[in-house]
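Lecture notes, unit on protein representations.

Consider one protein chain, 389 amino acids long.
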Amino acid sequence: MATFHVLIIGGGATGAALAHDLALRGLQVTLVERGEVTSGTTGRHHGLLHSGARYAVKDQESARECIEENMILRRIAPESLELNDGLFVAITEEDVAYRDLFLEGCAQCGIPTRELTREEALRLEPNLSPDLKLAVQVPDGTMDAMRIPLRFLATAKHNGAVIKPFTEVVAILKQGNTVTGVRVRDHRTEKEYEIGADIVVNAAGPWSEKVAAMAGVHVPIQPSPGVLLALRGRLCNMVINRLHRSGDGDIIVPQRGLSVVGTSSWVVEDPDNLPVPEDHVQLMYEKGAEMVPMVKQAPFRAAWSAARPLVGERGATTGRELSRTFKCFDHADEGVEGFVTITGGKATTARGMAETTANVVCQKLGVDAPCRTREVVLLPHTAYYVQPD
């Protein structure tokens, strides 16, 4: 059988999972990333292993994707997860009124829930607000933003994939209307060279619109940053969410010895230009403290912003009106062959995004090879730094 070569642009979670999937299917894979792997959006998220409950009312497609991938990640990367569950907490009567809609949405999406009284919740999380009225427990968890993608990459390398960090795509190569590879610049040597490929996959997250433009096609992406605040000390052991429609500062994610409060939401034209507005930082303090009052006194560790790659045409005002689902574009539909884009989604759903994309790639190449990533346990993240034999 001929060995086809697929080149992936983007070394975040999605590109890493795709390299792993395609390598398992026997394809030759090269992944290029302009910086270090995970240095874009992937390395900046709060590390929530989504149960999907945050989207169960408003965005059920995303909710179903999250709960399915949550359960798969528990099988293939258990050592990189903290399965600490999550609480959706009602602080006001308005929150309480949202309860029935929330429980109904979770049930429709197959997300397990357990209702807790105020007393039961406070026994589990004594730092919760004294104004707490009730809580709902869901199978949220926490993950390491870097280690899960490194496990995908390590396993991909073990199966023959070539990973090239600090390698930026500066041009998409075409013959007529067919993409034939890329021209890259190695930022360690500043030399440029070409890499040929049978198919190029654009997995550049919020930069995917810019990459697509190099090939003369359009990807409807709205980069939507949000500010996150890291505080010293573990203020909760479970993931704490506000029981209401998703909004600013309504989640606290425990990460080792830190607590990460997130997030705000706005839209930008350039995902490389992400400010950290001071009023957004203060909003994280204020809203986080409504759930866990100790947020206001906890020592500051860091504040940063990360751009979500939301699928949708420009024109949104905050990003919250756009779905968190993902979309795979075969640009043959626009008259450009050999070029595919995968974008949108969550870190939790990266493996599922990769499976969908790998199915498209294999169909285009005429390769009959099933997806195996639902069951193959990933190598440890440390294996990424070991040269294969």
